[in-house]
Write a sequence for this structure.
């Protein structure tokens, strides 16, 4: 009895962790992954993560779509080394100022106690004005931090980065076992990680299918210090509808990068922000209804352009169509043809067309008349 | 994904829990250590409640407008202080550290959804008030969470009972 119970448990475990071979026919699953920027403490990253989720979840959790929010936390050793060196060179009050500057880059100065930073400051407004001045005082230090971070994008050391491997494994598992689409939401230096994730996901297969045949992962970059985003899809596929960035024209980090000869993606918004760095995740990108709406719209647009990996299919006993699968959320139809085993995906197919295909006297004839030349398609096998 | 919980109901329930079991009344606060409290990584904890005295005073002073958040903030500070000491001693951390931290943060958020971010940031700022503490915290965060895929835990009011009483002193 014990033996049988053990077997049942083992089987249940295998079922629970087994890769699914195809995606469901109803609904959608999304992995929304925030990747924090450099020198962000865990608490700051968590607060940013919550703010991002609160701002975007109402837009992304549309009826039928289950959103799994994930913080891909990274706290890079090399960046910590850099900041440690800076801290060691500073007097106590300068350390407080550096802390305020870094906070303005990664989150929000509104949350800080001005007096704790400098006893002569009593309001957040005064703190902000002072931080603006301190940028000038600390410009050499900031330059070193930014340059170090930006230069490392091409560093071979990235290939062995444990944080990167962990992010890739987690995302890949969600694609393989939960059939999730992935929306990366990197901020600042997190964009280097996001860029490095692309080839490591799109260069893989999932349940036997090349991932780069499907727009399963997209990216909305915020405050991106990188020179590009995306890439890695099959050559016939364009990633322009699943990649976007929002950089503020006045972003102090990006402008500094450009000054020292490191090119970043250009600024594309000038919406007024009271964030003096124009780079902090909360103050710049979620700080006003206007810019928050731009972020929401960008995320929703990319999410709607993502597609699941191959769908669960049923045999329909046709001489020309061996199996068909349909997803009602994405309005996508997957077909495996009998003659040569090729597999195609048709986009934007209404549910009614799919139902009619199933009930047609001759599904092959119905397909030729109503689907073949009526919808955009892609051959994925 | 978003949990829709009525805030007044949440606070009422938490008050009820507090009334039944714990307390948010400050026991006698220790004397502020002043500059002496900044000299070492550990700082000074005269009342042996596991929270640095300057941080303990900060939490009470900064959060008197919403006394219910004081106990969970003290728990957060205590656990983090222990983690800093453990990490500084031998680099070994309790496996449950990250989960406990996330749990406590969610409880604070449950009590004050709009203001929890500022309260936790102010606590972080008060805690990391020297270069050594900031450096150690960055290393600690890297040790416990870097490379982790973190999801917010699902927390209900009843789950938060464990952080609704002021941490006891070992005196």
């Amino acid at each position: 009895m014990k033996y049988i119970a053990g077997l049942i448990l083992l089987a249940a475990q295998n079922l629970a962790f087994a890769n699914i071979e195809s995606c469901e026919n109803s609904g959608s699953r999304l992995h929304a992954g925030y990747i924090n920027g450099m020198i962000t403490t865990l608490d700051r990253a968590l607060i940013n993560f919550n703010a991002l989720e609160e701002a975007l979840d109402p837009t992304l959790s549309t009826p039928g779509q289950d959103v799994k929010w994930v913080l891909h936390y990274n706290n890079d050793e090399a960046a910590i080394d850099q900041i440690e060196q800076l801290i060691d060179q500073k007097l106590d009050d300068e350390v407080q100022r550096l802390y305020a500057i870094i906070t303005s880059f990664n989150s929000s100065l509104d949350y800080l106690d001005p007096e704790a930073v400098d006893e002569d400051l009593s309001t957040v407004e005064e703190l902000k004005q002072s931080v603006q001045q301190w940028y000038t005082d600390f410009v050499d230090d900031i330059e070193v931090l930014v340059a170090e971070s930006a230069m490392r994008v091409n560093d071979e050391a990235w290939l062995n980065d444990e944080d990167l491997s962990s992010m890739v494994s987690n995302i890949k598992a969600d694609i393989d076992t939960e059939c999730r689409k992935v929306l990366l939401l990197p901020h600042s230096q997190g964009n280097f990680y996001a860029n490095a994730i692309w080839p490591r996901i799109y260069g893989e297969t999932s349940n036997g299918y090349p991932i780069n045949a499907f727009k399963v992962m997209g990216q909305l970059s915020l405050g991106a210090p990188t020179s590009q985003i995306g890439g890695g899809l099959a050559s016939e596929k364009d990633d322009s509808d699943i990649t976007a960035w929002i950089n503020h024209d006045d972003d102090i980090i990006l402008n500094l990068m450009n000054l020292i000869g490191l090119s970043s993606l250009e600024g594309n918004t000038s919406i007024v922000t009271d964030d003096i760095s124009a780079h902090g995740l909360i103050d710049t990108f979620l700080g006003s209804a206007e810019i928050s709406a731009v972020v929401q719209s960008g995320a929703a647009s990319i999410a709607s352009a993502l597609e699941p990996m191959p769908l669960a299919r049923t045999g329909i006993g046709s001489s020309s169509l061996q199996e068909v699968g349909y997803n009602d959320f994405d309005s996508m139809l997957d077909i495996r043809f009998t003659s040569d085993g090729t597999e195609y995906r048709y986009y934007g197919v209404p549910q009614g067309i799919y139902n009619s295909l199933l009930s047609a006297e001759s599904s092959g004839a119905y397909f030729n008349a109503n689907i073949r030349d009526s919808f955009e398609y892609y051959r994925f096998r | 994904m978003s949990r829709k919980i009525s805030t007044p109901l949440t606070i009422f329930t938490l008050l009820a829990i507090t009334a039944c079991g714990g307390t948010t009344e400050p026991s006698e606060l220790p004397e502020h250590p002043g500059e002496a409290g900044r000299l070492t990584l550990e700082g000074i904890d005269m009342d042996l409640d596991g929270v640095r005295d300057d941080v303990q005073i900060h939490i009470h002073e900064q959060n008197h407008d919403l006394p219910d958040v004081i106990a969970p903030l003290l728990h957060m500070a205590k656990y983090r202080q222990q983690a800093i000491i453990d990490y500084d001693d031998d680099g070994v951390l309790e496996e449950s550290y990250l989960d406990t931290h996330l749990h406590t943060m969610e409880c604070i958020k449950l009590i004050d959804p709009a203001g929890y971010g500022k309260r936790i940031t102010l606590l972080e700022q008060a805690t990391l008030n020297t270069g050594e503490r900031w450096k150690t915290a960055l290393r600690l965060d890297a040790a416990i969470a870097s490379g982790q895929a973190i999801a917010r835990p699902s927390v209900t009011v009843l789950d938060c009972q464990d952080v609704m009483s002021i941490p006891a002193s070992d005196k």
Summary: Residues 1-6, 19-25 of chain B have pLDDT under 50 and may be disordered. The first strand of chain B starts at residue 149 and ends at 150. The helical segments of chain B are 7-20, 53-62, 70-90, 97-111, 116-127, 131-145.
